[in-house]
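[job 0412] stage=complex_fold ligand=zinc ion status=START
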Amino acid sequence: MASKLFIQSSKSTLIIPNIRNFPTYSAAHTRQIHAHILKTGLLIDNFISSNLISSYVNYRCFNEATIILDNIVKPSSSSYRIITNALSKYNLYHNVLHLFSKMLREAVFDDCFILPVVAKACAGISAIKFGRQLHGFAQVSGCFLDQVVQSSIAHMYVKCGQLSVAHKVFDGIPEPDVVTFSALIAGYARTGNVGIVEGLFCDLEKLGLEPNLVCWNGLIAGFNQSGRYIEAIHVFLDMHLRGCQPDGSSFCSVIAAIADLQLLNVGIQVHSYVIKMGFTTNKWVVSALIDMYGRSACVSRMKQVFEEMGCMEIGSCNALVSALARNGLVNDALALFSQMKNEGVDLNVVSWTSIISCCSQNGKDIEALELFIEMQLAGVKPNAVTIPCVLPACGNIAALMRGKAAHCFSIRRGIVNNVFVGSSLVDMYAKCGKIRDSSLCFYAMPTKNTVSWNAIIGGYAMHGHYKKALEMFDLMIANGHRPNSVTYICLLSACNQKGLVDVGWRYFNSMHKEYGVEPKMEHYACMVSLLSRIGKLEEAYSLIKEMPFEPDACVWGALLSSCRVYKNLQLGEIAAKRLFKLEPKNPGNYVILSNIYASKNMWADVDRVRGLMKKIGLKKNPGCSWIEIKNKVHMLLAGDKAHPQMAQILEKLDELGIEMKKAGLDPKIDYVLQDVEEQDKEQILCGHSEKLAVVFGLLNTPAGFPLRVIKNLRICGDCHAFIKFISSIEGREILVRDTNRFHHFEDGECSCGDHW
Ligand code: ZN
Ligand code: ZN
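[job 0412] stage=complex_fold status=DONE, emitting structure tokens
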């Protein structure tokens, strides 16, 4: 081989003509030549030293190359350029800046070609201070007249997020090229500044330049980020018509825009285009498609996209879990998640967080809490997004100990000051009956947002502290936070707890006028409930008739349950008729109507409604309560014969019943009638679930220990009276949270003042 010959015969200066253009075959070979050159003293030859440096950088031997540079007496600027170019190619930007400083110190600088490389290095590590100095140096040295240098400095400012300076530099370039345009466009698109993006795009076309892919993508992303989805889609079409082929990034932006608008048909067309262009295995595009179909409730297609990808890629798996969760398909999401686990997909914090959030939003609270533990056992650390997903599950089933554990975890991880973590702690403590802890958390938050204020206002409302709730609202306004739709739901429900009709009307009438919050279905439902619960049924019905949209089941449901309380048959029949259409499968509505008939002794109608229910095949909603004992959440079902402690519970229940009769507190038949809503006759005999849970708590906790029970339906009058009695005879503080509010039972009294 030539090289071998060369080494072997390298004994005289005869080889100089060869060495000037020596070829090298490896780093080791270069070192051999280097040794030879040192021996022969040829390093002083600039050409030879440059060649040697080139060889070293070819094999990424930057140390050796730099040593040569240090050892030559007068290194040329081209030697510097060779090394900096190579360092930049391998993203060793710190070294580039270091070398450039050395070059200036040694006054070797004599050409401008090195400046774009240095500017790129500044951009690569966001060294804005160095970048500014470079900009100054370029101006002083006269290099700034060079258009390539100008463009590179503009690029550098864009990458460092200094868009206005970049724009100034850009404006000084006499004939900017499309690459510089695209850099600026992409920079503005990232910040969502679509107005400037549009302007630049126009300027580009005026100059007769053809926009490149980066420009098109910038324009689409810009429109998308500023919520101008239709325009984003139009630009995508325009781009296609003008023959520019989209890449993954264009597809992701346009699919996201389509997803937001839920334009399923357009989405399907773009999906075909994705297939045609061969992007069906691009993980970003696949995730975007899954999300798009998920938002349009197109479950089969979203699964199909996932399957066609042909592998369990973590990003698209996570997207599918979220999309399934969005469509309430929690069992499918759980199945996919365990498949991911079985197939050894490296689950990250996003995967765990999405499945936990999926469970806690879809009524699988116990599963959410178990997954949270499993996640930590798997060595994945929960973050500031995970905690706000798991805390609602603790709140939903009043798993106070688990909630406290998550709180401690947040303190240890230093994320407790995160505004979302803090807000969810406020909410969790309130829902677990600890309104004091809830307010302590609230005041400890260093920054608060509307969600935090809503959490505390909602907490006070739930606990019947309506004055506090209204006070907090004033404080929120005084602190410069704007109320939103949820704030008003909390306020109206605070009024609802105490029957404050006038205050309720005041908020309802001013929400739009003062803060631009349009009353939605939920606000109307609150008002209807507020009016009808204090017996103003006709007024509630007029409000329903005035509603600017079709009332939903919540609105009619609020009216119907009050019709039962006030035995208003006429309005009850109207509401029930609407409800049978809106939610034909909800057994509660049939039961309430039959109860109204029963209260009027219209037994034939009672039988008719019950017959209707049987014909449709409806069973009553099973009552269900939860109680946390020793860090474990127990669920009790009405009429649950399989429960291991049921015999004991029933025995204790009998005992207490006898005591109650002795005390002259006979449960009224009317109560039983009123609440057959949610329970069967058989279930009534066995006791409602909240009664069972309270007795279960009495049996399994030491005397004097407070009990905390959650119920999935409203508490009935019979149970309410029974629990009041237990709180006095057993000397226990008992908290029951039903779907509506909290009941604090103490010394035979309830905090709701028997108004619920
Ligand atoms: Zn009951
Ligand atoms: Zn009560």
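The beta strands are 624-629, 632-637, 707-711, 734-737, 742-746, 749-750.
[job 0412] exit 0
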